[in-house]
Amino acid sequence: MAAPNQVQIAIPKDSADEEVDYSERAQWLRAAVLGANDGLVSIASLMMGVGAVKDDAKAMILIGFAGLFAGACSMAIGEFVSVYSQLDIEIAQMKREKKRAAENNVDSLNAEKEKLPNPFQAALASALAFSLGAVVPLLAAAFITDYKVRLSVVVAATAVALVAFGGIGAVLGKTKVVRSCVRVLIGGLMAMGITFGLTKLLGSSGLEM
């Protein structure tokens, strides 16, 4: 009877560990999806803004790459500073707890130290996620010379990616997929439309690039 009891004790422990690991992975994946969505909408809107006043494919793609580099660097630096601040706070808290901890609690504090956030890892992940989303409209416009077709393809490719990112984010966040996809799609299309319209208005008012 001892063996069955040991099996019953081990199973909940394993399932609990797997649940914790899944939760951590889901948080990282969801953050990655949000970063990719940010890169997608930002660069697509930027390219549509340029496309509103210039039909030159080279200018549109160059501004897209400039936005990719600037956005990825900004996301990485912002994430690095944010996570480093969090790391400083957690280390300070651990030091305060260590002073009050008894001798048998030292090991648990060391175990917690291994789970501290990594600013460099967070910065790299944020930059890569942003770049992943930004690449979509760039690839859509790279090989199309016709002005109107190029704009249409950028909008179409961005819309498909928005639906995909919205669905993935909903699954990871355990929310309604259709509602999330529609919300993300409408938001992204609005961002592109507003940027295109306002830039077109500036161009028609006499402001030239």
UniProtKB/TrEMBL annotation:
GO cellular component, one term: vacuolar membrane
Subcellular location: Vacuole membrane
Pfam families xref list: VIT1 (PF01988)
Identification of the protein by name: Vacuolar iron transporter
Coiled coil ranges: 84-112
Coarse class of the protein's main subcellular location: membrane
InterPro entries to which the protein is assigned, alphabetical: Ccc1_fam
Biological process (GO), any one: intracellular manganese ion homeostasis
Function of the molecule: Vacuolar Fe(2+) uptake transporter.
Catalytic reaction(s) noted: Fe(2+)(in) = Fe(2+)(out)
Membrane topology: Multi-pass membrane protein
Keywords: Coiled coil, Ion transport, Iron, Iron transport, Membrane, Transmembrane, Transmembrane helix, Transport, Vacuole
Segments crossing the lipid bilayer: 31-53, 59-84, 122-145, 151-172, 184-203
One Gene Ontology MF term: manganese ion transmembrane transporter activity
Family: Belongs to the CCC1 family.
